[in-house]
Structures are given as C-alpha cells and as structure tokens.
Amino acid sequence: MVAISGNKSSEGEFRVWRGKLPLEHRYTSGVAGQRFFGSLKNRGVLIASRCSKCDVSYLPPRPYCESCYEAIDSWVDVKNSGSLYSHTLAFETRKGRTLKTPIVFGLIRFEGVRGGLVHRISAVDPKKLTFGMKMEPKLKPKNQRTGSINDILFFRPVV
Ligand SMILES: [Zn+2]
User: Which of 78, 92, 114, 134 lies at a C-alpha separation of 20 to 30 Å from 1?
Assistant: First the structure.
C-alpha cells in the first residue's frame, strides 16, 4: 500500500493504491556466513567469529566487531550444546495453513558467545521446555548436508 498526501490527520483521508508487488530477492550468506556454513557442512561444528582485541565472539558470525568496528580476525569452535533462551509455538504455516501439530521455535544461546541461533525445537513436549534448558543440534548426516542452516534439522534437549 502506498499513501500519498501531506497534512492529513486520519487514515481515511489518505489517497491510497492497493496492490501487490511481485518482489523476489536473494541474500548471500556473506564472508562470515560462508565460513560458518562451510564448517557446519564439512565438520558438523558451529563456529563463531571472534574479535581478539575485545575478546568477544559472535554467532551468527560477524565480519566486523560490533564493539570496536575492527575486522574480525579469528574463529572459534562453539560447544555445540547451548541453552534455550526463549521459545514460541507456530500454529500456522507462513501461508496461513493450520498445522496439525504446532512447530516449536527457540532461540539457543551459547556460552561465551554474543548472539544465538533461532531454530526449530523437536524431540520434546513443548510443555516440558524450560528456559536455560541445555539443547543440542541434531544434524543431517554429512553426505546430505548442503551448507545451509537446514543442515541442522532441529535442536533437542541434551539427555
Ligand atoms: Zn572488537
């Protein structure tokens, strides 16, 4: 929707055109993302970029440090288990179709790392999820990985 006007005080006074724009766009994973996904695909290991000057690690990895703005100069393996920081349930698909079973999504944070990963949570009754619960990724078999976030099938509680 595009609104064109000035000095209008209510929505009904705006002149609007309603329509849809068939836009499509692509993101590259970038230099840092490419390295992250390469590690995930080839080694099955989560990695973080690390600013040695600030002693801060980032996941998702950043090519530049958010604290000092210097280019990131090192990488560290992240312990694959993290903790559940937050979660929610989706009852519909992105296109509005009702799901028979809700999908659980969670934010997993990792010790010593700034940031975290949002991913699907599975292999647990959502009612039993607790904040801070230790979670680990379930990866695709190596020969099926493509170097994408979907190489992680889901996160599940560490047993
Ligand atoms: Zn820094």
Answer: 92
Q: Residue 97, SS3?
A: coil
With beta carbons less than 8 A apart as the criterion, state whether 76 and 56 touch. Answer: no
- The model's pLDDT over 89-100, given as tens digits with 9 standing for 90+, comes to 999 998 999 999
**Nearest of 55, 119, 62, 61 to residue 85 by alpha carbon:** 119
- State how far the Cα of 64 lies from the Cα of 50, in Å rounded to an integer: 9
- Look at the pTM and tell me if it is higher than 0.85: no
pLDDT at residue 8, as a whole number:
58
What CA–CA distance (Å, rounded) separates 99 from 118? 20
Q: Residue 65 belongs to a domain with what CATH number?
A: 2.40.50.140
Q: Is the pLDDT of residue 119 over 80?
A: yes
When divided into structural domains, the chain yields a total of: 1
CA trace torsion 40, 94, 83, 74 (10° rounding): 40
State residue 100's pLDDT score: 95
The CA 48 to ligand 1 mean position distance, Å, reads 14
Separation of CA 50 and ligand 1 centre (Å): 8
Which domain range does residue 60 map to?
30-157
